[in-house]
Each structure stands twice: as structure tokens, then as C-alpha cells.
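Input (Gfo/Idh/MocA family oxidoreductase):
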Amino acid sequence: MCKRYNVAVIGAGDMGARHVKGWIEAGHHVMILVDMDEQRLRKVAEENNVPYTATDYKEAVSRPEVDIVSICLPLAFHMPVTLYAAGQGKHIFCEKPLASSLEQAQQMEEAVHNAGVKFGLGFQRNLSPGIAVVKKWVEEDKFGRPLVISSDLLQEVRPKRVMHDKNGNQGPIVDTCCHYFLMWQTILQSKPRKVYASGGIFAKDRPEIAHFEQLAVDTAVITVEYESGDIGTMTISWALAKDTKMTNRNDRLFGPKGGVQGPFNIFTIPELELKLMEGDQSERVAIHQLNLHAEQFKLFAQALQDDSQEYISFSTGKEMMKLSYAVLESIETGKAVYVS
Ligand SMILES: NC(=O)c1ccc[n+]([C@@H]2O[C@H](COP(=O)([O-])OP(=O)(O)OC[C@H]3O[C@@H](n4cnc5c(N)ncnc54)[C@H](O)[C@@H]3O)[C@@H](O)[C@H]2O)c1
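Output:
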């Protein structure tokens, strides 16, 4: 049985609330919750019986009883909170994306290494049973090779405006494509070789985000070639019209012998349905979704207890950042970019 760790959750927004519930479901004790928005803080703490709250993360992190600091703040805070927590000798679980730049990621990694603590990264969507099933079908060669995997994400201008700030959350290529890139790599079991992409700032005239000094690219069509010869493609936008009726297409994977379509890694619905096609045969496969946050925290806590490798840490986080930056470089230069 795993030890019950004391956790400080930093941030009581969408992810903060999910972290609190996930840690509790994984059998650990969320002893303190932090947010500078006191109303939100009180609500999430009361709903989940969290005994202590604070508005300053340093107050929570420095408590001697805290074993793990779970960071759910906007991207710009991932580095400062990680450095502070490592300095206090705490293990750290941080939301994706890893950092605002590769230099910051390096500083975080050094601080964690020097402190001798562990660091996990929030890619819970990659634990979706949908991904595991599709990966198994690929391994069984149900579809043949090479494969094409496609994903789609179309949304309105985000209500969390900081998502559009080039100096904040850096737009969907950095903030969100990382989930899809990791999913593709996991299913294909291959590393990216080359990227080409077109895109731009389609929401540049929208008044809601006009106050930012620099806007991030919000729309792109992306193609990633893999060492295996497989191809990943994605259309992503956060620039749709308000109250748009556009809907997303399901994830799709196909090869010379067959394919599968469905939501492979959506974590907010309780049941997934995948449509498996082999030759002219097709069948619907129902998959029960898990609380993926609880699953990732169980893995992290087990790695602490066993002093084993974290499920996802710096190398994967940096790999995803490099691929996102390669996409942005391709959009800016109009050229294909090779990923080492
Ligand atoms: N893994 C996933 O599936 C997933 C999904 C969405 C977001 N995220 C990531 O989670 C992180 C947080 O995103 P979110 O959607 O929860 O954002 P959010 O805006 O809902 O919540 C962030 C919270 O942080 C608080 N905050 C900001 N600065 C603070 C500070 N200095 N001190 C104390 N509180 C502060 C805000 O008041 C807010 O309540 C981001 O890195 C985002 O990319 C991950």
C-alpha cells in the first residue's frame, strides 16, 4: 500500500479543483489550498474539506508537514513556484506545459536535481484508456503501416484571456498541442522527425484580447512526420466566432488495412466509444473512462515511495516544448523544421 502524502495544491482554478479531487481520490491528504482569488479559494476548499487555505504560495509550500506541491497556476508561475518548492525540499507535481522557455525548463530541472526531489508533469490525458486501446491495436498491426493520425480542436477566443498572451500561456500550439503530440508519439511509438505548419493570429481584431502587447498564434494546420514514416496532422484554432456552432471532429487513425475513430484522450466524459474498422468490417467498442488525475497522482506517489522513475518528467516536457516551438518556427519561416 502506498504512503499517504500531504499535498499543497497551488491554484484553485479549473485544474486546481481537479487536482484537489484527484489527490483525494488517489488516497492522499490535501492539507492546504492556495489562490489569490479568495472567493474561489474558499469555495473549492469547502467543497473538498481542505483544512487550510492561503493566498501566498510560499506560506503553503514552506509548511513542514507538506510533502508534495501540486502546481496549477498559469504558465508564467511554473518556474518560480518549482524553484521555491525545490528549495524547501518538496516534491513537485506541475501542470503542463513545463515552462515558459527551454532556459526556464533547464533551471527548473537543475533546481529539482540539486534538491534531490521528484518532479512530475500533468499529462493525465495520456493515461486515457482510449489511447491504451488504440496503441494495442497498432501493436497488433490491425491497421498496417504507415499510419496517419489526425486530431482537431476548434474553440472560440478563450474566456481565460491570458491563454492568448504570447508572453503568458503562449496560445494553443504551446498550451494544448502538447497533449496531442504526446498522444501521437505514444500511439505510434515513434519520435517526430520533421514538422511543417501554416497558421497565424486569426483573432487579432477581437477587442477582448486587444490589451495584450503581443498575441500568440491562435490557429494552425500542422503536419508532423515521424521516424517510423507515420504522419500526424492537426487543425487547431482558438479564434472561432462567439457562440459558434462549429464542432470538433473525432480523432482518427488509419493505415492500409483499417482504422479507428473516436475521442482517444478526452478526459471529461465518462464513456468513450471508438469505431474500429478492419477491411470492410466495423465494430463499436465502448471504453469506461477513469479519473485520469487520480491515476496520474497514484503513479507519482508510487514513484516517490519506490524511489523509481516518474511517469512523466523533464525529458518528455522538454520534448513537447521543442515540438511546439518547431511548429511556431515553421509557421514563421514558411519552411519545414527538422526536430532532433
Ligand atoms: N492537464 C490538463 O489537461 C490541463 C487543462 C487545462 C489547463 N492546464 C494547465 O493548468 C494550469 C492552470 O490552468 P487553469 O485552467 O487551472 O487556469 P485557471 O485560470 O482556471 O486557474 C489558475 C488559478 O491561479 C490563480 N493564480 C494566478 N496567479 C496566482 C498567484 N501568483 N498566486 C496564487 N494564485 C494565483 C488564479 O486566481 C486562478 O484561480 C496551466 O498551466 C494550464 O496550461 C492543464
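DSSP finds ten helices and 15 strands in the chain.
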